[in-house]
Amino acid sequence: MPVQWTISHPHRLVIAVARDELRLEDVENYLDGLAVVDALPYRKIFDTTHARMMLSDADVMALGARIRAYMKIATLGPLAIVAVTDRAYQQVRLFETLAEGNRPIRIFRELHLAREWLDSFGEAV
To answer: What local confidence, expressed as pLDDT, does residue 99 receive?
Structure first.
């Protein structure tokens, strides 16, 4: 499974780790999974450190559209994305632009910095 995630409902936190080849369907399944358990408002880390980004620009645009649709039905919590390769960073920047809305989102090169930033929001987000 390219994206594995854990949800802490008491801490209102989702930690997702992508591995191997990351494709549009993998991210869509992850987002659908969060929606089903009402975790979209939670703080989230999405770590792409060990993934090969197999997303086209059209795929990233589709994800941006999906996020904007979710924003119409739910409040989305802060999102920290870890992108260590230049390709991943460029795709995440495009996603950030396309999925902009009323929620904090930042890109990091290191997981511990992403977690520090996310923890600054506390559990009440």
So the answer is: 84
Residue type, 86: D
**What is the pLDDT at residue 103?**
87
> What's the start-to-end Cα distance of the chain, in Å?
29
Judge contact between 14 and 43, C-beta under 8 A.
Answer: yes
pLDDT tens, position by position, 90-107: 999 999 998 877 889 999
Spatial contact of 58 and 91, defined as CB atoms under 8 Å apart: no
Residue 124 has a pLDDT of: 62
Tell me, letter by letter, the H, E, C secondary structure of 53-118: ECCCHHHHHHHHHHHHHHHHHCCCCCEEEECCCHHHHHHHHHHHHHCCCCCCEEEECCHHHHHHHH
Q: Cα dist. 30→5, 16, 26, 33 in Å? A: 8, 9, 6, 5
Residue of 1, 2, 13, 6 whose CA lies nearest to 118: 13
Q: Going from the N-terminus, what domains does the chain have, and what CATH number goes with each? A: 3-119 (3.30.750.24)
